[in-house]
Every structure is written in structure tokens, then in C-alpha cells.
Amino acid sequence: MSLDTPQTETRRERLTAHEALQRLEHERASRLVQLRAIAEAAPVGEEQAMSTQKDTIQRVLTEIEAAFVRVQDGSYGVCRNCSKPIPVERLEILPYTPCCVPCQRDAA
Question: CA nearest 69: which of 98, 91, 47, 41?
Fold first, then answer.
């Protein structure tokens, strides 16, 4: 990049609804593939470990479905605890998160 080329990219404040829906669809599809793989590969004697994994994936799927609702009602990307915008970088990594990092940390 030349020194006289102006930098045109600016930091985005929010994901568009379309981008959010695409990321959530990808997350849901990935988790469903994981559930199918667990079901197909469940070795005898490891039911407890598999059950824990399935429970975790089911919890994430529930969070993903809740994020779809937030997109539809316009509250997606807003922290449910402090009502501040969730940084787009966090939503790109964890698109179904309902909280910003400080509130998530406080909840833990």
C-alpha cells in the first residue's frame, strides 16, 4: 500500500442483520454436525463423556436459537446486562453471545 493511499476501512460498530444471520446459521450447522458425529461414533463405555459433550452442544444450540430471536426483535448485539453494544469483534468470534466481555466476566 502506498503512503499516499488513504485508509478507507473504518472499524465497524455492528454486524448487519444479514451478517449476523449468516454467522448464526453457520454456528448452528456446525453444532448439528457435531451432534451427528457424536451419535455415530459413540464408543461403548464412553457414554458419560459423550453425554456431557451432547449437553454442551445442546446448550450452545439453545443460545444460537435465542440469538436468532434477538436478531428478529432488534436487540442483537446489545448486552442483556448493561445494554451497551457488544463489540463487533466479539460477535464475529462468538455470534450467539448475549453479553459483552465485562458482563460475562462478572457473571462467571
Answer: 98
Q: What are phi and psi of 20, to 5 degrees?
A: -60, -45
Cell of 68: 436468532
Which pTM value belongs to this model? 0.78
Domain 17-107 CATH class label: mainly alpha
Tell me the pLDDT band of 40, cut-offs 50, 70 and 90.
confident
Cell of 70: 434477538
Q: What's the mean per-residue pLDDT of the chain? A: 86
**What residue segments make up the domains of the chain, in order of their start?**
17-107
Helices (H) and strands (E) in the chain, counts: 4, 0
Q: Beta strands of the chain (E only): which ranges?
A: none
Q: Which helix (H) or strand (E) holds 35?
A: helix 17-41
